Amino acid sequence: MSQCAVVQAIANCGPISRASVAKITGRSKQTVSEIVANLESTGWIQAVGHTEGHIGRRAIVYEISPSAAYVASVDLGGARVRVTLCDLTGTVLTELVEPTNPNGGMAIVDQIARMVRSITALAGKPYDDLHIAVVGVPGVPDPETGAIMMSPNICNIDRIDLAGNLRRQLDVNVIVENDVNLAARGEHWLGNHGEQDDIVYLSVGTGIGAGIVVGGQLLRGRNGAAGEVGFLPFGADPFDPSSLKTGALEQVAATNAIIRQYLARTGVRKTVSEIFDAAETGESNALETLDSVARQIARATVAIIAIIDPSAVVIGGSIGQRTELLDRITHQASKCFPRKIRIEKTRLGAHAAIAGGVVTALHQLHVSLFAAGQSTTEIIIPPSEIENFVAGAA
Amino acid sequence: MSQCAVVQAIANCGPISRASVAKITGRSKQTVSEIVANLESTGWIQAVGHTEGHIGRRAIVYEISPSAAYVASVDLGGARVRVTLCDLTGTVLTELVEPTNPNGGMAIVDQIARMVRSITALAGKPYDDLHIAVVGVPGVPDPETGAIMMSPNICNIDRIDLAGNLRRQLDVNVIVENDVNLAARGEHWLGNHGEQDDIVYLSVGTGIGAGIVVGGQLLRGRNGAAGEVGFLPFGADPFDPSSLKTGALEQVAATNAIIRQYLARTGVRKTVSEIFDAAETGESNALETLDSVARQIARATVAIIAIIDPSAVVIGGSIGQRTELLDRITHQASKCFPRKIRIEKTRLGAHAAIAGGVVTALHQLHVSLFAAGQSTTEIIIPPSEIENFVAGAA
DNA sequence: AGTTAGTTCGTCAAGTTACCGAACTAACTG
DNA sequence: CAGTTAGTTCGGTAACTTGACGAACTAACT
Fold it and tell me: Most buried residue, A347, A379, B244, B319, by most Cβ within 10 Å?
């Protein structure tokens, strides 16, 4: 079907006439006319006016009808649950944030379901127009069982079928994906990278992990464990048995590492943000701690670049995106790799995973609606306005 | 066109009837009949007999006509040039090996062209039936200029357009690709891995490098430098400026590293194979040298697994495939990664790149013949007999 | 051995789908 | 008015499907 191509042309090129769509897609004018008529009658696109001032007959221009359907993107964190409702253009309509229910397990399912239902009500949209929900989780979803493995901060989430239960409660399609993977997709979508660029999102927070987008697709790996950079074999001694529990790199390049290193140097236990504050005042122990951690993260970045050779490595996460650390990482990394390397700060901050959820949802929606039965179709969702996502950051 | 699907079904499922092809491809019987008639008349497939003993009418079975076209796979090494001629089923017909012309540059082009022409003569095949040649080179082909960058062992190869010149001399399509990348494709094709399995081929010889197959496709990276594991930031001090010339890992995990380490321990300069021999006699210095090198290669393997999470890492290269080293690598790697990991010895040995060239050539041939103009078509070349490749190893 | 039922192969004819090309009408600029 | 562009109508085609049917075979029964 050319339907898919037509939808994409309209989505990408904003308000556009049928004649132009025909040129872009390479189909004939009346093939396009037929499809457009069809799409308009089913409500997916709408006419929004005329061209004017050009020579020749005025053209009717069409655009994706934003309110034809909605998608929900959920970021389930250890501390907070964030839910956003977006329209078909990827514009955020409403956002809702709550503390994560500490009971875990089914309580989480109930919480997410309630939040998704109430956000559609808040936005004043009929619930039936919600077509899909994507949930980012801090762990590895098991595609067989739907359980979330390796998620220490949320209890009992590895004992239930999150996707299945949510699907039942919400009565819409549900996709569950690792939050760092979603963040990588989000940055790839909105972070000023080409559609074909390979990018890696490196998240540094309580742990360290990477999401990898190659050829527009997430690299998942055999066990869904691609990007587990915490187990890179340097930092702490990788051959020490203790490195089998907490990875060798993770021991020296995450929240706990900063706290512990500062403690070792000074005998004083401070929180991460206190240590950052101390560094800003020029305290040498704090500065040395940050230097040391940045050095290890820089090595991780170089390891990723040596193996993947991406267009850019985007660094995010609660501590990774702090400029003081980022500058040090960039500086150190450039010292141990022969070519120029591109390390960037996340442009989406805490909303990277949410944005990734939105693009995943929209992609899935387009596939199911317009490419049913087609084997391999490249579907590109045009980037939304980045401000939609960043502005909402609380 | 369904033509592509029909060809694949016949290629994959050996001698097969039209009715079975219809079932496999999901097309109707006479669509298949038409296409088969067409393919038979153009010579790409041939009838080879009847089914028998089954209930019902006998079926005429067809197979790919092996001699409809041929492809050449060339492995250009620093010391040797290896050329093989294969038929459409991926069976090696003839192999030719020569020392690499030491003059480099255009002399290499002339040498390869001469060898390719003479091998078709040797095999007694009309030159016009040769459709494509794939050349594996120890360096990074620049897709713009056709020059081969970073190829220290072959002189002046970075100053000429290898692909273009060969295409002109041979008058067939020519693809030039990095040899480790081809080896990765070869192992992926013949090494008992699933079509969708991600595998990494790690070559350890004069240098260390990896070829990465993800989702059936080579991972190339922004600069074509994916898999440059020599620059992984451990082994030697990665922040030392000397690690910008020879990568930190490459300094301790390749031919020279073995020689130098043994020299440092004993004061004696031996070749790599002499050191392996010494290790076999139980000489402790040699054993310790191998242990130390294996330890670093194991770290490289773990780094790859942590980032890519492939189904398997296949180790090859002149020293990587030596069992003494491989056993040590496997053992050390398992000690610093929490999950079970699959490290395998190359099954193709020196013929991995050749096999990769063959599958690349056959793939390209199928695309150009049967999928012309189609956007994205998965084309799977059924594995050939691995013996065809390994047996020829000299 | 002969008959009959059941199965599968391959073909024929008619219909469907998704597209295209060319001619045509509509609406605008200058 | 001519010139230009937008959209429609009409007819046509390539690729595929569906369903009916004869040919060729096996198996089982008489």
Answer: B319
pLDDT at B373 over 70: no
d(CA A35, CA A43): 12
Task: Assess whether B36 (CB) lies less than 7 A from strand D.
Answer: no
The tokens describing B237, both together, are 């001090």
More confident residue, A340 or B153: A340
Smallest Cα distance from B369 to chain A, Å: 19
How many CB atoms neighbour CB A293 within 10 A? 25
| B chain contacts of residue A306, beta-carbon cutoff 8 Å | 228-233, 247
The answer to whether the Cβ–Cβ distance between B302 and A226 falls below 8 Å is no
For strand C, the positions having any atom within 7 A of a protein Cβ are 6-13, 18-23, 26-30
- For residue A289, the tally of other CB atoms under 10 A from its CB is 27
Place of tokens 């997410």: A112
Q: Are A315 and A326 in contact (CB under 8 A)?
A: yes
Strands B148-149 vs B140-141: parallel, antiparallel or unpaired: antiparallel
Residue among B234, B243, B295 minimizing CB distance to A234 = B234
Mean pLDDT of the residues in chain A: 91
Domains recognised in chain B with CATH numbers: 3-64 (1.10.10.10), 67-184+351-390 (3.30.420.40), 193-346 (3.30.420.40)
Retrieve residue B51's tokens. Answer: 């089914």
pLDDT 10s digits, A253-297? 999 999 999 999 999 999 999 999 999 999 999 999 999 999 999
Read off the pLDDT of residues A352-387 as tens digits, 9 standing for 90 and up: 999 999 999 999 998 888 876 665 556 677 677 777
Q: Give the whole-angstrom CA distance, residue A247 versus residue A203.
A: 15
Sign of the dihedral defined by the CA atoms of residues A258, A261, A262, A263, in that order: positive
Q: What are phi and psi of B217, to 5 degrees?
A: -120, 150
In tens, the pLDDT along B148-164 reads: 988 888 888 999 999 99
Please check whether residue A104 is in contact with residue A117, taking contact to mean a CB–CB distance below 8 angstroms. no
Q: How far is CA B335 from the centre of its chain?
A: 29
Q: Which residue of B has its CA nearest to A303?
A: B232
Selected residue with higher pLDDT from A95 and A52:
A95
- Separation between Cα atoms, residue A158 and residue A147, nearest integer Å: 5
Of chain B residues 310-339, which have a CB less than 8 A from chain A?
310-311, 332, 335-339
Between residue 120 and residue 139 of chain A, the positions with Cβ below 7 Å from nucleic chain C are: none
The amino acid sitting at B172 is V
Q: How confident is the model at residue B381 (pLDDT cuts 50, 70, 90)?
A: confident
